[in-house]
Amino acid sequence: MAKTGESARWLPDVEVRVRTATAPRIFRAGWAGGPTRIVVGIDAVGESKARVSVLHEKLTGAEQAAELKAYWRERLAALKALLETDGGHR
Questions:
Q1: How do residues 6-43 score in pLDDT, each as one tens digit?
Q2: How many angstroms from the chain centroid is the CA of residue 38?
Q3: Which of 79, 88, 80, 68 lies closest to 11, judged by CA?
Q4: Residue 56, CA distances (Å) to 6, 11, 45, 59, 71 in order
Q5: pTM of structure
Q6: How many Cβ atoms sit within 10 Å of the Cβ of residue 33?
Q7: Residue partners of 34: CB distance under 8 A and separation at least 6
Q8: In this structure, are residues 56 and 38 in contact, taking their beta carbons and an 8 Å threshold?
Q9: Please, which residues have CB within 8 angstroms of residue 81's CB and are 6 or more apart in sequence?
Q10: Which of 67, 66, 61, 68 is nearest to 38 (CA)?
């Protein structure tokens, strides 16, 4: 399964191959054709908010973990801005 239009807008600079999904709550995906993978969970928090969690698995070490921590901080901020700009429309 290739990534959806929404994830392409959220993660435009990386190849993400969705492996399994339980829409709209969670998806698991291969990351950039490499050995790492991600698990993204989405939980509703009230009527108009959600909590998004990202688990990036099989990292090679502390340096890669630090790089990806900064990457995910930026991409989650971009997701928030994207959803606020779109007014929640999907």
A1: 677 888 888 888 899 998 899 999 998 889 999 999 99
A2: 7
A3: 79
A4: 19, 14, 23, 7, 11
A5: 0.80
A6: 10
A7: none
A8: yes
A9: none
A10: 68
